[in-house]
């Protein structure tokens, strides 16, 4: 037992000794200074590693950016209006774009309503893309920022692509003319009230409710349709785009007797002239209602196709003709065109319109309106059916040939160096004057207007005789008289198409040409002004587009 107790005691002693040894071996807790030094070393290690990583990234970015910048091509993933231009030089991209976009720049668009349709080609409005700017934008992708921005953009474009929409331009005046022309041809168009004088009566034509074209929407639809098309889709689908012409119901304005009266009422004035300096003043015929305005208002309340208001006309006591030939001693200009005198109906139309204009006197600053002077072309006025252009065909129409008179007068006016206020070209070229020298008119829609910008009054004389239509402008010579000529230059040609019409009355394979076609064209017309033989100025007065006349052929089965 004693031995056992000793052993137990020894064990206890050894245990105590072990505890002391353990206490000696346990590390002491670091001081605050030691902890700070350890943290500083750890942060330094992290900074060194991060710096190495940043340097590596920077080196990689520089190399990556240098590789892309030094390559003289557009980066991967870039396209312009659906056309891939990746890895192309700017010159290669230009060639590819011009070839592809030429399809869109000659794209036909069909404009239609229930009762009318026509076709517009994009080249008619001189639609163009700014290809150079689009290529510059494409080439600048991945090049216009700093290294990090450029690398990010290069990677993003390579993964997701980048589509560039090119800027575009077009001839807004031509587009406006085409839209106006479309509206003028629509059946059921609203007709506003109009009036004209016939002897001692004022003829008022009431307006008719109808439709009108929302021109702003139509122009927007046309441009949007062109822009949204892609050459690849046009080739793939091989179809003509269609636009529904936006039309809206429109009520005609109510006849305003007060407004009409204020426009036609004039006091009679005698013609006279002053010598120092020389000025001549034409006579003015007095015009008034022969009835009260209240009675006139009662007349137009009734339902009728036209209203007649009796006029009280008071002639001037002295006219320009009474003054003598000294009033217009100088021939300023003259111009002639030829017509087929054997075409009785057309010749009569030319004579009626010319007689309306013959003898017209314009004071300095006064404006001439063809439609106002000639008036509405009606059967009652003596006009006959003759050939006119309509929707790409030659058809019979009332007062056909009138535009030869407006065109002849236009050229005489230009040669007299007068200001042209309003003038439009025909849809098709004419036989009596070269393209660029014509002036079309449509009553109530298209007018020909000019202003007497000379120092003295002018007198217009006109005649239609033996196949020659002529207008001469008389007046008083200015201190310097200029010689003015219109010089048209054809800039491009528009090919015509052929329309075939099945005709069971013909023998199999037999063809009959109903209408011979001819090409259209674009014309830039210059006005050359000379003092003697010296050219004083040369300026563009118009840029006109003439549609091609299609060939129409009837074909047997």
Give me the secondary-structure topology.
Blueprint: H1 2-25, H2 32-70, E1 78-80, E2 83-84, H3 90-104, E3 108-112, E4 117-121, E5 128-129, H4 131-140, H5 147-160, E6 162-164, E7 168-169, H6 172-185, E8 194-198, E9 201-205, E10 210-213, H7 215-228, H8 231-237, E11 241-244, E12 247-250, H9 257-264, E13 272-275, E14 278-281, E15 286-289, H10 293-299, E16 307-314, H11 320-323, E17 330-338, H12 344-357, E18 360-362, E19 367-369, H13 370-374, E20 385-390, E21 393-398, H14 402-415, E22 419-422, E23 449-451, E24 458-465, E25 468-475, E26 483-494, E27 498-502, E28 511-515, E29 520-531, E30 534-546, E31 551-555
Parallel strand pairs: 1-6, 3-11, 27-31
Antiparallel strand pairs: 1-2, 3-4, 5-7, 8-9, 9-16, 10-12, 13-14, 15-16, 17-25, 18-24, 19-23, 20-21, 22-23, 24-25, 26-29, 28-31, 29-30
Helix pairs in contact: 2-5, 3-4, 3-8
Classify the beta-strand content into a percent band.
25-35%
Radius of gyration from the CA trace?
42 Å
Mean pLDDT: 84
Oligomeric state? single chain
Low-confidence segments? 1-5
Number of domains: 2
- State the strand order across the main sheet: 8-9-16-15
Shape: elongated
